[in-house]
Protein 1
Amino acid sequence: MTSEVDETPGVTEALGYEQARDELIEVVRRLEAGGTTLEESLALWERGEELAKVCRRWLDGARARLDAALAEETSDEAGAE
């Protein structure tokens, strides 16, 4: 099967958050629209899972950076007192 959802893992890992999110939206749209074979639907589902993991990693990283910045700010304020 030749499909536009076939991606190598390295390419998926290199995606930015916005790219992964936009592609995930398209995958969901195609799945909801129907009209694909079972094999195509499974490939889309798998691609969507990969993209969701990429998005989750970006969001987790952003959360960690925010938490670190907030902790640093709190420690700076405590040291100033």
Note: The chain has three helices and no strands.
Protein 2
Amino acid sequence: MSTEQIPVFRRGYRLQWEETQNCHVILYPEGMAKLNGPAAEILQLVDGKRSIAGIIDELNQRYPDAGGVDNDVVAFFPRVVQQKWILLREPE
């Protein structure tokens, strides 16, 4: 995985706020997965245009007192790729 890759939701998968769960969820054909706050923050920035590095930059700007989110975001994407929620595309 490279931080220059661009994450995109797989076809049939989407992020949305679920009022009854009081959290963001990933909806997919087989069901739903509840997300914690940090996962939702990261996935809200997945727009099919922004690279992983761009997501890291945005989160570091939003949360300057966090001391850097780089390692957490880099560790997050292999897990969601393994879950088959996200695909990683090479930049054009």
Note: DSSP finds three helices and five strands in the chain.
Protein 3
Amino acid sequence: MQAATSVRANAFPSLTQALLAVESVLLGGGQRTARRNAWTAVLEDRRRARDRVEAQHVLEAVATRSS
């Protein structure tokens, strides 16, 4: 039964693979690269924003303790 499950799982592409295939058909190489670069920049901006919020909380905690 284990083998049948893995064969079935490999028979169908994942949603990610399917979306990448559609993307490659609809978008040219340059557009695809630009979209991925933009998404990477969005993720990096979100990470930096989380880091800023965390740093602000730490600074506020330190200021509260010392006053």
Note: Residues 19 and 50 are 29 Å apart (CA to CA).
Protein 4
Amino acid sequence: MNIPVSLPLDNDDFLRRECPNCARQFKWHDGPASEEAENQPPADAYYCPFCGVAAATDQWWTTEQVEYTQGVAMPAAIQALDDELGSAFKGMSSKNFNIKQTGHLDVPDEPDPLTEPDDMMIVASPCHGWEPIKVPEDTTSPIHCLVCGQAFAL
């Protein structure tokens, strides 16, 4: 089963992320930010701008994104299960017994869509400037490059 879930971007096409190590939030650009970025190989891991620890690219979900994704997936999964149960029992009758679906599973409502504010300031590392990030306005140096983890000053 494949359930598409859309996460919001801010007006600069940045997606909110959360470090799986230090839990601080920042944003990275969704998709290539420049022609140079388009020519780069896909990353296997990224480095946290704050603590500098690397993690696989699929480990950066915020708590809100995980809860929202589960909230969208659960109703779709329960509805699919209910449909399958209805199909499985359809026609299961003989002269000795009759099986009939008399109810349905309770399908929860989907959560309200997430919104993404236009907060944070854009920062580009000197070593991999084609992979900009956004950090909170009150962030102090050093910041680590998302691509290689090299520390740099703001």
Note: The mean pLDDT is 88.
